[in-house]
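Input structure tokens:
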């Protein structure tokens, strides 16, 4: 079974896997439109995390993890709690295209998507408003700023050819609000 991650799963899957591949899925764009009151926020200050929006011609980069044997039940149980129960995400099957040109055919992968029907869905907002919300939000997995910066770093270092205007515009807005925090591990640890 392959599982595609496009948010915190790209740097912190939290389950055992056999292999991982960087690549993309088509027909979806990544958006910071899902609220989070557990991992990256609280009931008083919900964080902003990513979900996927169906969009013709769009492409979302991330990581697909292969889980085999006993890893399958354990990883799906873990992800059901992390993504569905606590996050409000539903599952879908998508075609994952590995970055490696020699990988062959696309791979069917399971992906978690938060829809507008779930109670934590926040929907669209300006990049500045999203950045301002991220700055004041923190949950049991850490500060929402860390989530944004780690995702931007993943895209920059593992998918340098990919465009993600939404993600990088929010990062820019955050930097303009808190320039001293940009990419400094010491600052993130202090938050």
């Amino acid at each position: 079974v392959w599982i595609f991650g496009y948010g915190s799963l790209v740097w912190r899957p939290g389950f055992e896997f056999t292999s991982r591949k960087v690549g993309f899925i088509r027909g979806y764009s990544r958006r910071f439109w899902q609220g989070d009151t557990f991992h990256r926020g609280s009931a008083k200050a919900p964080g902003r995390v990513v979900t996927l929006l169906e969009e013709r011609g769009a492409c979302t980069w991330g990581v697909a993890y292969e889980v085999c044997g006993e890893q399958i039940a354990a990883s799906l149980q873990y992800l059901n709690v992390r993504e569905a129960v606590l996050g409000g995400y539903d599952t879908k099957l998508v075609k994952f295209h590995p970055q490696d040109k020699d990988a062959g055919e696309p791979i069917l992968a399971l992906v978690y998507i938060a829809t507008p029907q779930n109670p934590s869905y926040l929907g669209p907002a300006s990049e500045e408003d999203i950045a301002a919300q991220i700055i004041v939000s923190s949950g049991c997995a850490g500060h929402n700023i860390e989530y944004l910066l780690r995702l931007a770093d993943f895209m920059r270092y593992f998918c340098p050819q990919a465009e993600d205007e939404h993600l990088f515009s929010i990062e820019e807005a955050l930097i303009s609000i808190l320039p001293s925090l940009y990419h400094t591990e010491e600052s993130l640890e202090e938050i």
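The beta strands are 2-5, 19-36, 47-66, 89-98, 107-114, 138-139, 142-143. The chain has a mean pLDDT of 91.
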